[in-house]
Amino acid sequence: MSRVKIHVYTGGPVACNGYLLETAEGCVAVDAPLGFADWARTRVPHGREITHLLLTHQHFDHVQDAARLQEATGCRIHAVFPYSSLLTLQETARGWGIPPVEPYRVDDAFGRGGASGDWGGERWHALAIPGHSSDGAAYYLEEHGVLFVGDIVFAGSIGRTDFPEGSQARLLAGIREKIMPLPPETQIMSGHGPATTLQEELLNNPYLT
Fold first, then answer.
1. Which of 51, 83, 93, 101 is buried most deeply by CB count within 10 Å?
2. Which residues share a beta bridge with 197?
3. What is the DSSP string of 144-199?
4. Rounded to 5 degrees, what angle do the CA atoms 197, 147, 78 make?
5. Residue in 105, 95, 107, 17 with CA at minimum distance from that of residue 56
6. Which pTM was predicted?
C-alpha cells in the first residue's frame, strides 16, 4: 500500500478546513479556503506539484482560493457541477460583508452520479451527497480508509440545510446510503472542526444513530 501524508489548513472568515495530500505522484488538494494557496506552496515537497483540486462543494468558504490555486499551479478542478455564483452563495456572502469569489474553471464536472478517478497516483471515489448544498460530494480514498466530507458530516453533527437547495432529508438519505456502509474505522475529515471516525459518529452523532 502506498502512503499519503495529509496536511490540514484552517482559514477564512468561518474557519474552513482545506487539505493537502502528498501522494505517490504529486499532491492533491481538497477544498481551497482563503489563504490556502500561499500556505500550500510552503507544504509541497521540492520537485512535486499540486495536480488536482477536489471540491466538496462550492460554498464561498471552501473555494475562496480556488482560482488563485488553479492559476498558480495549473491544477485540474473536480466538482459535481461547473462553477456558478449561485453555488458559491455570492449574494449571501455579500450580505455578510465577504468579498465575491473569483471565478475558476471546473475541469471535471462529474454530476450527481459521482465518479472515480486516479488523481495524484491514488484511486479516489467521489460520492455525490446533496442536502447541505445541491453539489455536495465526499471523496473516499478506500485504500487508505480516509473520507473527505466537506460539510456533509461533522464530529457530532451534520451540515446545516437552510441554504438555497438545502434539504435535511436528502442529506440524511445520502449519509445513510453512501457513508454509513463504509468500514467503521474510516477516518472522516470534515470541512470545519476536528477529524473523527465513522465508528465514533455511529455511536455518538445523534443524526447517525
1. 101
2. 187
3. TTEEEEETSEETTEE----STT--HHHHHHHIIIIITTS-TT-EEEESSS--EEHH
4. 160
5. 17
6. 0.96
For 71-87, how does the pLDDT look when each residue is reduced to its tens digit (9 = 90+)? 999 999 999 999 999 99
Cell numbers for 69: 490555486
CA 16/CA 168 separation, integer angstroms: 21
* Residues contacting 195, CB < 8 A, separation 6+: 155, 187, 188, 189
Which single residue is written with the C-alpha cell 470545519? 192
Q: What is the pLDDT of residues 13-59, one digit of tens each?
A: 999 999 999 998 899 999 999 999 999 999 999 989 999 999 999 99
Beta-carbon count within 10 A of 194 CB: 12
HEC letters along the chain: CCCCEEEEEEECCCCEEEEEEEECCEEEEECCCCCHHHHHHCCCCCCCCEEEEECCCCCHHHHCCHHHHHHHHCCEEEECCCCCCCCCCHHHHHHCCCCCCCCCCCCEECCCCCEEEEECCEEEEEEECCCCCCCCEEEEECCCCEEEEECCEECCEECCCCCCCCCHHHHHHHHHHHHCCCCCCCEEEECCCCCEEHHHHHHHCCCCC
Q: Is 143 helix (H, G, I), strand (E, B) or coil?
A: coil
